[in-house]
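Good morning C.,

I know you're traveling, so I'll keep this short. The sequence:
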Amino acid sequence: MLEKLVIVRYGEIGVKSPKVRGRFERKLIENIKTVINDPVDLKQGRIYIYPQDIPKALGALEKIVGIVSYSPAAVTRTSKDSIKKLIQDYVGELVNEGIFSGHDSFAIRCRRVGEHDFTSQEMAAYCGSVVYEITESKVDLTQPDFELFVEVRGNKTYVFHEKIRGLGGLPLGTQGRVICLVSTGIDSPVAAFLMMKRGCSVTMLNFNNHPFTSESNEKILKIHQKLKEYSAGAKLKLYQVDYGEYLHRCIDKAPERMTCVLCKSGMYRIAEKMAQKDKCLAIVDGSSIGQVASQTLPNILATRYSTSMPILSPLIGMDKVEIEDVAKKIGTYDLSIIPDSDCSAVPRYPETNAELPLVLEALKTINAEDEFEKAVNSVKLLK
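The tokens, ready to paste straight into the viewer:
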């Protein structure tokens, strides 16, 4: 019976200094262990998992950031007889399952690590002869129908036929915590995911604009639950601010066209106050230049001016189609497009070229800092 396991590969971690690399490797393994309760080993730049349920493990690895690729594999000791027996059994299974047959051309991709009495080319030729004995398939090293990978690593040899692409990025929890403005739209959940992919733990901050929008939290809770699937190894918190009173103040006391600018400016200031409480190092939002009124360059300057904390916008140069593609890939798109009420506080002609002095004057007129303190005091932890 074949001894099976899963080989996990990472990318950027490998080019870090030894000290940083070790810390990142340990964190990635820790994150894996939060969702896979099986033996895990690290050796020679590879992570080896020995799961009882391989399909279940593969499904879990699909959503762990920091993994470049992974392969279900079989292992044996490094000797020609053992490798021959392993390939015979492994290829025999593939033939029985209809994955490989004599009608398919094939290539052996061999790699060695360590000292051996054969070269990679010699081992590839040997393994190829074993496969030919079973299937009489044609060898094609340029464009084969099927590839069999043989990795000889010291006294162990691994055989596999597929490399499943992972999410890539850095292990979650290696880059500090950020607070992310997350609405129920398409963009901001993608921004949160991309920061997770860069190794940041995320605190989600949602603004409930009731009575200008629906009071229901159903959509934001579903989006939180979906993003949580990618948060192995770090807690994904969801806070919510009651924002309707502040919007009322903006509409009643400031020029109507500035409502969106004042709204976004307030979100940043409240996020900054929450970030300090939650030990976050930066604010994140889903801004993409020119997509909506508050995201023109003059408005970006005006809304962020009063905030001293760094504001990161991972979508800033992406267009709507690119953002939607990521949303579909991670599963938030179908949640974001569930019909919902638009914000009725948006003016008919919103300001797109805000002048900073006028914005600062408007914030002063509405006693913004007092309103921000009230809003922060209204914050509740939803999840």
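Safe travels,
E.
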